[in-house]
Design a protein that fits this description.
The protein is mostly helical. It has a domain at 161-242. It is 82% helix and 1% strand. β1 (37-38) and β2 form a beta hairpin. The two termini are 18 Å apart.
Length: 377
């Protein structure tokens, strides 16, 4: 009976020593939090291991995060997964839906961006844009021939209408000379013709008679304008003039109309269009309504995919610029020792208890063998 009691005693003592030793060793990882001094000298093992090595731990954690956890390859693989892409697309779509559902007008959005007079800004920007576009568009065109500037379809249509224009001119001339006003004009022209010939002209006019001469000339003029050859002649003359005109550089057209006049006309046109539309008072949702489905189902997925590819290509530079190792080191160093202890224990409390229990078990086993050895000796 005494032998059993002795063995049990040794086992209990060994278990207590092993458990307490391991528990004390675990606590010495964190405790004491600060150095302890006695008689002006710091006691050994103070502070605890983790508080004492906190800076080194912070630096190693930063390196571990960058070199083994948040690696460029790992981030790139994550960005290329369908799960991440679908989630990002869904979040962006929800954000856009929420933003549009607020019913904010264009004016309100611009004012929130710090633009106090959006109307004036839009007019100024529109005019600047128009002047820039006009100059960029006209610069290469000024030295070109007019025929090279106009589209071929336009030129063909104009050339096809030259015959109609010739007929129109002949018809208008025919109507004029058939009228009483035209007859009087012919008579006046005949008078001017004879009066310019002196006495011989007057005698010839008296002999022929002005009234009879008008009646003879007018039908011939009418016959002239009715003749198909006359109309063909007009068409050929117009066609020749058109070819001459289209061979001039386009700068001639700009100079003829006036550069500043063109700009002023375009400015007035675009400003009136902006004011008439009054899109500043319209909501963003209303403005993009025709493109809503396309934005949600096409543009946003493409934008997210393009953003993912860009981040994937730039991930090394981004990590280097962010200096993640320094961020982790700084954050860990800024933790209080109590918080650091709480974080580690919240993760490993169960394992630390198992280490304590294992120490008690090993201590009990050692105590049992020590009791056997003691009895044997």
């Amino acid at each position: 009976m005494g032998t059993i009691f002795y063995l049990l005693f040794m086992i209990v003592v060994g278990a207590i020593i092993g458990g307490v030793t391991n528990s004390l060793a675990i606590k010495m990882l964190f405790r004491p939090h600060h150095p302890v001094y006695m008689f002006g000298k710091r006691l050994p093992f103070t502070p605890g291991l983790i508080p004492k090595r906190r800076e080194e731990l912070a630096e190693q954690l930063g390196k571990m995060v960058v070199e083994h956890l948040l690696t460029p390859e790992g981030i790139r693989r994550k960005l290329m997964t369908n799960e991440w892409t679908d989630g990002a697309v869904e979040q962006v779509q929800q954000f856009v839906e929420t933003w549009l559902s607020r019913g904010r007008t264009v004016r309100r959005v611009l004012e929130q961006m710090g633009i106090r007079q959006p109307e004036e800004l839009i007019r100024t920007k529109a005019v600047q844009w128009l002047d820039k576009v006009y100059e960029q568009g006209m610069e290469p065109m000024r030295s070109k021939a007019i025929r090279d500037v106009f589209p071929d379809e336009v030129q063909k249509k104009i050339e096809a209408r030259i015959g109609d224009l010739a007929n129109y001119i002949a018809d208008r001339a025919l109507d004029y000379f058939q009228s009483e006003e035209g007859k009087q004009r012919i008579a006046k022209m005949i008078d001017e013709f004879f009066s310019g010939r002196g006495m011989f002209g007057n005698m010839l006019q008296m002999f022929l008679g002005n009234a009879n001469l008008v009646d003879k000339v007018q039908p011939e003029i009418i016959k002239f304008f009715r003749h198909s050859g006359t109309r063909e002649l007009f068409a050929q003359l117009l066609f020749n003039e058109w070819n001459k005109l289209t061979s001039y550089p386009f700068a001639v057209v700009e100079e003829l109309i006036g550069k500043e006049r063109i700009r002023r006309s375009l400015r007035c046109l675009i400003i009136s269009a902006v004011e008439r539309d009054d899109f500043l008072a319209r909501s963003l949702a209303e403005l993009i309504a025709p493109y809503r489905e396309r934005i949600m189902n096409e543009w946003i997925p493409k934008a997210v995919a393009a953003g993912g590819r860009w981040i994937s290509d730039q991930v090394e530079a981004i990590i280097e610029r962010l200096q993640l190792a320094d961020i982790v080191r700084f954050e860990v160093e800024s933790f209080s020792v109590e918080r650091l202890e709480e974080m580690i224990l919240s993760i490993s409390r169960r394992e630390f208890k198992m280490i304590t229990y294992l120490g008690a078990l090993l201590g009990g086993i050692i105590g049992f063998f020590q009791g056997i050895i003691g009895l044997w000796l």
